[in-house]
Write a structure and sequence with these properties.
This protein has helices at residues 11-37, 53-58, 71-74, 80-98, 115-171. The protein is mainly α.
């Protein structure tokens, strides 16, 4: 018999649902505060100076007690109203971002790397790839050696068993002793 009856939900699942609902509430309050103060949280990623519901759902910030969740979870009956409010506040924030009413210092700007920095990074990554290739080769060689050794051991065991059988057939009823 199962641990739960039909229609019952485990405590862990119920706690996760409650945590996600609380996270959506926290997201709403943080974004509402951002519309009033004009300061976006530093942990909130932007896509082309826009905020989308998908970005909000993937957003994770333990300091603000915000966890990531799937879009289906946001559309459940418990969270549908909160998600609608969240969409509304996202629209307001996007208007503020478009009209440049939010301070520029709070919008993270991706720094472009110079050609020299990119070349250095490429060289470093190529070096790491070579090290990984050598390591994988060594691991594979060790695996092959162990595999060959285990096959030899199996062959020796088979030979030992056949020799014992031959001895027992020759002795016909006399007791055998195994000496190691």
């Amino acid at each position: 018999m199962g641990r739960y009856e039909k229609g019952q939900t485990s405590d862990a699942v119920l706690q996760k649902k409650a945590a996600i609902t609380q996270s959506i509430k926290n997201e709403y309050t943080v974004l509402l505060q951002a519309t009033k103060t004009g300061e976006l949280p530093k942990s909130l990623p932007l896509s082309n100076k826009r905020i989308t519901l998908g970005i909000i759902q993937k957003w994770h910030d333990p300091d603000l007690q915000i966890i990531s969740y799937s879009s289906n979870t946001g559309q459940t009956s418990e969270n549908a109203e909160l998600t609608a409010m969240l969409k509304n506040i996202i629209g307001k924030l996007n208007l503020l971002l478009k009209s440049d009413k939010l301070p520029k210092k709070n919008i993270p700007i991706k720094q472009k790397k110079s050609t020299n920095e990119l070349n250095n990074e490429i060289a470093r990554l190529k070096n790491e790839i070579e090290i990984l290739k050598r390591t994988v080769t060594e691991v594979y060689r060790a695996y092959c050696m162990i595999l060959a050794e285990s096959m030899n051991t199996e062959d020796n065991n088979k030979k030992y068993v056949t020799s014992l059988r031959n001895q027992s057939e020759q002795m016909k009823g006399k007791f055998l002793k195994v000496i190691k």
